[in-house]
Amino acid sequence: MLSMREMKEPKSLEARIQAHYEQLPPAERRLGDLLLGFPGDIATYSAGELADMAGTSKAAASRFFQRIGYKDFNEVRREVRGARHWGSPIYLSATDKKNEKRSQTVAAHLAQESENLSRTLEALRPDVVRDASSALGEGRRVFIVGFRNSRMLALYLQRQLMLMRPDVVLLPQPGQTLGEDLVDLGEQDVLVVIGMRRRVAAVSKIMEVAQKQGARILLLTDPSATRTAKLATWTITCEVRSTSIFDSYAAAMSVLNLLCAGMFRGAMKDGYDRLRRIEALHDDLEELDTFAWFANMTEEDT
Fold first, then answer.
1. What are the backbone angles phi and psi of residue 191, rounded to the nearest 5°?
2. Which of 137, 195, 234, 291 is the most core-located residue (most Cβ within 10 A)?
3. Burial category of 226 from C-beta neighbours within 10 Å (exposed 0-12, middle 13-18, buried 19 and up)
4. What kind of fold does domain 4-98 have according to CATH?
5. pLDDT score, position 7
6. In whole angstroms, what separates CA 46 from the centre of its chain?
7. How many CB atoms lie under 10 A from the CB of residue 236?
8. How far apart are CA 28 and CA 67, in angstroms?
């Protein structure tokens, strides 16, 4: 059982620093100021290096970490590395990013995006891509779940699938609870869960319900997923690392594009028929300026 002190002790590094800030000696306060600005530095620098950056001593740094409730520097480093792995943007920042030239930033971004795509696509199992794509086309209904940043990926997938098949539902509906949408989920249905890191607790609960009711589950996630991956029929892992504090979803978008392309090849006739009807409706409703670019070109030529 936790002691009263442990129950009241702030958990995060920033909360601990802020709780003790007014009582910190000047030498330790300088280190506190540095870490409040860039807590992610703990994952990449030693205690001595952090002390030098803050203009204080290694002994002061040791006292500082003990004062705010850690056993030693290694304990706080483990905590910060865990937070970085989980995707907290606060811990993904670093002081050395401020000095990068713009050309270096673009080059580093390109290198990381290329690595994410390569690692993600090279790790794909052809049988998983084939079976998941087929399920998206053959399932009675497809339910797509996405929260937080995963929502925009879920919306993209829903709109692409709707071009090729009916009965594609995006969950949760705005302002609605999930029970009404999940009650009829069954063995003939497919649940797609987009669960990138910093997932909400509802993700695993929804997957548990779907598994219990016999639906097949496709999970698109990042390498931090462990428990949720065990609940899925198919799991596709996408790299999301970035040179900035913001996760990159380029690899995830590429995988979704690949799944849609695979589904279309498997149901090409029905897909084309549906696309023709959609295009006809666009024309009837005058929704798209389909030939506006051509008309502009013609006017310029004359």
1. -110, 125
2. 195
3. exposed
4. Arc Repressor Mutant, subunit A (1.10.10)
5. 41
6. 29
7. 23
8. 10
- Whole-angstrom distance, CA of residue 170 vs CA of residue 172: 6
Beta bridge partners of 217: 191
Q: Which of 236, 179, 238, 190 is nearest to 217 (CA)?
A: 190
Domain boundaries defined on the chain: 4-98, 121-285
Which residue has 């290329």 as its token pair?
A: 114
Query: What's the Cα-to-Cα distance from 223 to each of 249, 250, 264, rounded to whole Å?
Result: 13, 15, 28
Q: Specify the pTM.
A: 0.64
Superfamily name with CATH number, domain 121-285: Glucose-6-phosphate isomerase like protein; domain 1 (3.40.50.10490)
Name the token pair of 102. 């713009």
DSSP string across 194-257 = EE-SS--THHHHHHHHHHHTT-EEEEEE-TT-STGGGG-SEEEE-----SSSSPP-HHHHHHHH
Q: HEC states along 22-63?
A: HHCCHHHHHHHHHHHHCHHHHHCCCHHHHHHHHCCCHHHHHH
Q: Are 143 and 192 in contact (CB under 8 A)?
A: yes
Indicate the range of 38-42, 75-79, 232-236, 273-277 predicted with least confidence: 38-42
Q: What is the pLDDT of residues 231-269, one digit of tens each?
A: 899 999 998 888 777 888 899 999 999 999 998 887 666
